[in-house]
Amino acid sequence: MTTNPDGMSRFRGKAALVSGGASGIGRATAERLAAEGAHVVIADLDMALANKTVEKIRAAGGSAAHVNVDLADDASVEHCAGAVAEGVSALHFLVNNAAILRQGRIEDGSWIENWEIETRIGLRGWVMMTQMLLPLLKQEGGAIVNLSSEGGYLGRPGMWVYDAIKAGVVSTTKTMAQEFSQYKIRVNAVAPGWIVTEMHFATHPDPTARKKELEETRIDSCLMQRCAGPEEVAGAIAFLLSDDASYITGTTLHVDGGRAGMSLGHLGALE
User: Fold this and answer.
1) What is the sign of the dihedral through the CA atoms of 170, 172, 175 and 179?
2) 102 and 206 co-located in one domain
3) pLDDT at 202 > cutoff 50
4) Domain span at residue 213?
5) Is 162 annotated in the active site?
6) Are residues 24 and 123 in the same domain?
7) Which CATH number belongs to the domain containing residue 79 in this structure?
8) Rounded to an integer, what distance in angstroms lies between the CA atom of residue 225 and that of residue 207?
9) Least confident span in 133-137, 143-147, 212-216, 254-258
10) φ, ψ of residue 77 in degrees (nearest 5)
11) Which of 125, 172, 201, 218 is the residue whose CA sits 20 to 30 A from 181?
C-alpha cells in the first residue's frame, strides 16, 4: 500500500469512491487516500483485482470496500450508486478514473466498432456515476477529480476516439465545476502523460519485462525524460481533493513530466 511520507491524515473521517480502483492509477489513488485516513470504495468490474486491493489496504490498516460496476451498463451504475448509499451517509470525494483504450484509424474505419464501448465507459458512464452519486456528495460538500489525458490535448493517429473522449472530460469538468459550486463541490481534472500501468504491459507475453522496459525507456519529448509511476499521479489527485486545493476548481492539472514535444515515439499512448 502507498504510504504517506509526511504521516498526514488529511482525509480522516472522509469517504471516497474511485472508479477503476482495482489497478493502475485508480489503485494507486485508492491506496493513497486510504493511507491518509479515508474510507475508500473501489468501484470496478474486476472483482478479483478489486478484492486484492481492498485486502492490501486493510492489511496496511486502512479502510476499504469494493462495489461491482460496469460503466457501460446504466443499470449497473445505478445499482452501484445505491450500494454506496447503503454503506455511507455522505461521500466527500469522487475520482472518475475508469476508461478503456481501443485503437483504430479514421481512414480505414477500424475505430467504428470501438466507438460505442469507449464512449459509454469513458464519458457517459462516469458522468452518470457522478449524477447518481451527487446526492451523497451534496451532503457535506467535497471534491471530484476526473481523469483526462495529455492525448486530449495532442491528438494522436489511431487513437482519435480515446483522445476525443479525454478532451470531452476537460470540457465536462468545467461544466461540473459550474453546476456543482452551489453545493460546495469542487471539480478538477488531471491529465497524465506517459504512465506505466497494467494497461500497457499486462497483456504482453512477458509483463514483467515489458514493465521494466517502459520504466527504463528514455522519453526525449518529456523534460524529465522518463515515464511516471501511477503513484505520482495519485499524489496529484490527492492534492486536488484536499483542502490544500480549496481555491482550485474547473481546471486541469497536467502530470506529464514537462512534456516538451508532440511525438509519441514508439511507445504509443501511456496514460
Assistant:
1) negative
2) no
3) yes
4) 195-226
5) yes
6) yes
7) 3.40.50.720
8) 22
9) 212-216
10) -65, -45
11) 125
